Amino acid sequence: MNVSVRLISAIMLLVAVSVVWADYEPSLRHHETGDDASKRTDLQGRDCRSPIDPSDAFESVQIETSDIRLYEQFFESVLQSPVVQRVDHPRLDSLRGYCYRGVLIVVRQDFRTPRPTGWVQINFLVQNVAALQGDLERAYRASSVYQLREEDRAKIVRFRLKPDVMRGDRQVIRLEVAGPEGFMIGFDQDK
């Protein structure tokens, strides 16, 4: 009798775990809709589908947020980054994937347990910070974000140029593009 009860308990536990797993599985799987797989490149043609070296473990950066709309405005309007993932799980979460400079950046808002981003910084080495700053600021001024009140714009994007920053043993010109909730993209140009 005791063995039968244990066996039935084990089977019931496996069934319960299967039901719970099925409930969470959509948010854990990699999502692409329609022709997204063919669009996973940024505006400069850099590929976000896979790492450069297949032996590399790096696949993407995922950011948790309490307000995905701010990130949509930041990536789509200001950075003009292509959306390569757009998934909404009602009452569970929303995911947006952006290909920016060859890096897949996934933003997720968990509706059950919203989390502010905290601090995330992604750095790039570029040839010409001034040209990049001009391009980004032109896109920003032409975007719907620029039409918002100043305090609302500051929640989405802020620019800061630092002409003399030490990066290890080299001096760089640094452009910081601060986004929502502590997210920042830094651009360094060697002097």
SSE topology string: HEHEEEEHHEEE
CATH topology of the domain at 31-119 and 128-152: 2,3-Dihydroxybiphenyl 1,2-Dioxygenase, domain 1
Largest sheet: 4 strands, mixed
Number of helices, counting only DSSP H or I runs of 4 residues or more: 4
Quaternary structure of the protein: single chain
Evaluate the radius of gyration: 21 Å
Quote the beta fraction.
25-35%
| Residue share in helix | 25-40%
Mean pLDDT: 81
Helix- and strand-based class? alpha/beta
Q: CATH architecture of the domain at 31-119 and 128-152, please?
A: Roll
Gap from first CA to last CA: 79 Å
- Tally the beta strands: 8
Strand order of the largest sheet: 1-4-3-2
The rough form would be described as globular
CATH class bucket of the domain at 31-119 and 128-152: Alpha Beta
Show unreliable segments.
Answer: 13-38
Task: Walk me through the structure.
The chain has 191 residues and is α/β, with parallel strands linked by helices. The protein has a domain at 31-119 and 128-152: 2,3-Dihydroxybiphenyl 1,2-Dioxygenase, domain 1 (Roll), CATH 3.10.180. 31% of the residues lie in helices and 32% in strands. The chain has four helices and eight strands. The protein has helices at residues 2-28, 68-78, 129-142, 150-156, and strands at 61-65, 83-89, 93-100, 103-110, 120-125, 158-167, 170-178, 183-190. The strands form two sheets. The chain has a four-stranded mixed beta sheet with strand order 1-4-3-2, covered by helices on one side. Strands 5-8-7-6 form a four-stranded mixed beta sheet. Strand 3 (93-100) and strand 4 (103-110) form a beta hairpin. The radius of gyration is 21 Å and the shape is globular. It starts with a helix and ends with a strand. Mean pLDDT is 81; it is low at 13-38.
